[in-house]
Amino acid sequence: MAEHANLTTLTDSNFEEEVLNADQPVLVDFWATWCGPCRQIAPIVEELADEFEGRAKVGKVDVDDNPQTAQEYGVRSIPTLLFFKNGEVQEQLVGAAGKQPLKKQLEALTGQPA
Prior knowledge:
By secondary structure, the chain is an alpha/beta fold. The chain has helices at residues 15-20, 36-51, 67-72, 99-110; strands spanning 7-10, 26-31, 57-62, 80-85, 88-94. The protein has one domain: 3-Layer(aba) Sandwich (Glutaredoxin), CATH 3.40.30. The protein is 35% helix and 25% strand. Strands 1-3-2-4-5 form a five-stranded mixed β-sheet.
Protein backbone atom coordinates (compact mmCIF):
# COMPACT_ATOMS: atom_id res chain seq x y z
CA MET A 1 0.00 0.00 0.00
CA ALA A 2 1.42 3.37 -0.98
CA GLU A 3 1.60 5.83 1.86
CA HIS A 4 -1.01 8.56 1.79
CA ALA A 5 -0.49 11.71 3.83
CA ASN A 6 -3.82 11.78 5.66
CA LEU A 7 -4.20 8.02 6.03
CA THR A 8 -3.04 6.37 9.24
CA THR A 9 -1.62 2.86 9.12
CA LEU A 10 -3.19 1.07 12.07
CA THR A 11 -1.69 -1.97 13.77
CA ASP A 12 -2.42 -4.22 16.73
CA SER A 13 0.09 -2.16 18.72
CA ASN A 14 -1.11 1.39 17.89
CA PHE A 15 -4.88 0.77 17.56
CA GLU A 16 -5.73 1.82 21.11
CA GLU A 17 -3.76 5.05 20.91
CA GLU A 18 -4.76 6.00 17.34
CA VAL A 19 -8.43 4.94 17.41
CA LEU A 20 -9.79 4.30 20.90
CA ASN A 21 -8.07 7.34 22.42
CA ALA A 22 -8.59 9.62 19.39
CA ASP A 23 -10.10 13.03 20.10
CA GLN A 24 -12.10 12.93 16.86
CA PRO A 25 -14.19 10.34 14.99
CA VAL A 26 -12.23 7.60 13.22
CA LEU A 27 -13.06 5.58 10.10
CA VAL A 28 -11.19 2.27 10.15
CA ASP A 29 -10.89 0.25 6.95
CA PHE A 30 -10.08 -3.44 7.58
CA TRP A 31 -8.46 -4.73 4.38
CA ALA A 32 -5.87 -7.06 2.86
CA THR A 33 -3.61 -6.85 -0.19
CA TRP A 34 -5.25 -9.88 -1.84
CA CYS A 35 -8.79 -8.48 -1.49
CA GLY A 36 -10.16 -7.08 -4.77
CA PRO A 37 -13.08 -5.11 -3.26
CA CYS A 38 -10.63 -3.64 -0.71
CA ARG A 39 -8.46 -2.28 -3.52
CA GLN A 40 -11.62 -1.04 -5.23
CA ILE A 41 -12.63 1.19 -2.30
CA ALA A 42 -9.09 2.31 -1.40
CA PRO A 43 -9.29 5.51 -3.51
CA ILE A 44 -12.61 6.41 -1.84
CA VAL A 45 -11.11 5.91 1.62
CA GLU A 46 -8.15 8.12 0.61
CA GLU A 47 -10.48 10.85 -0.70
CA LEU A 48 -12.39 10.84 2.57
CA ALA A 49 -9.12 11.09 4.51
CA ASP A 50 -8.39 14.29 2.58
CA GLU A 51 -11.91 15.72 2.77
CA PHE A 52 -12.22 15.19 6.52
CA GLU A 53 -8.65 16.20 7.41
CA GLY A 54 -8.62 17.89 10.82
CA ARG A 55 -12.17 16.72 11.65
CA ALA A 56 -11.90 12.94 11.46
CA LYS A 57 -9.12 10.41 11.28
CA VAL A 58 -9.07 7.72 8.60
CA GLY A 59 -6.96 4.60 9.02
CA LYS A 60 -6.42 1.16 7.54
CA VAL A 61 -5.78 -2.16 9.27
CA ASP A 62 -4.20 -4.94 7.20
CA VAL A 63 -5.98 -7.99 8.66
CA ASP A 64 -3.17 -10.37 7.65
CA ASP A 65 -0.58 -8.37 9.59
CA ASN A 66 -2.89 -7.46 12.50
CA PRO A 67 -5.18 -10.42 13.21
CA GLN A 68 -5.68 -9.52 16.88
CA THR A 69 -7.49 -6.24 16.15
CA ALA A 70 -9.59 -7.79 13.38
CA GLN A 71 -10.60 -10.66 15.70
CA GLU A 72 -11.37 -8.28 18.57
CA TYR A 73 -13.92 -6.45 16.42
CA GLY A 74 -15.40 -9.58 14.85
CA VAL A 75 -14.19 -8.80 11.34
CA ARG A 76 -15.00 -11.92 9.34
CA SER A 77 -15.16 -10.55 5.80
CA ILE A 78 -13.37 -7.67 4.21
CA PRO A 79 -13.57 -4.89 3.48
CA THR A 80 -15.19 -4.00 6.78
CA LEU A 81 -15.43 -0.32 7.68
CA LEU A 82 -15.95 0.62 11.31
CA PHE A 83 -16.79 4.13 12.46
CA PHE A 84 -15.55 5.02 15.95
CA LYS A 85 -16.41 7.95 18.18
CA ASN A 86 -15.13 8.30 21.74
CA GLY A 87 -13.56 4.84 21.51
CA GLU A 88 -16.83 3.11 20.65
CA VAL A 89 -18.01 1.57 17.36
CA GLN A 90 -20.91 3.70 16.10
CA GLU A 91 -21.51 2.03 12.75
CA GLN A 92 -20.25 -0.87 10.65
CA LEU A 93 -20.36 -1.34 6.89
CA VAL A 94 -19.27 -4.62 5.29
CA GLY A 95 -18.39 -4.88 1.62
CA ALA A 96 -17.34 -2.37 -1.00
CA ALA A 97 -19.52 0.61 -0.13
CA GLY A 98 -19.79 3.64 -2.36
CA LYS A 99 -18.46 7.02 -1.31
CA GLN A 100 -21.83 8.55 -0.30
CA PRO A 101 -22.74 6.14 2.54
CA LEU A 102 -19.24 6.50 4.00
CA LYS A 103 -19.25 10.26 3.65
CA LYS A 104 -22.74 10.51 5.16
CA GLN A 105 -21.66 8.49 8.20
CA LEU A 106 -18.54 10.64 8.75
CA GLU A 107 -20.64 13.80 8.42
CA ALA A 108 -23.02 12.44 11.05
CA LEU A 109 -20.14 11.69 13.44
CA THR A 110 -18.36 15.02 12.92
CA GLY A 111 -21.60 17.02 12.83
CA GLN A 112 -20.42 18.81 9.69
CA PRO A 113 -20.64 18.31 5.95
CA ALA A 114 -17.35 17.62 4.15
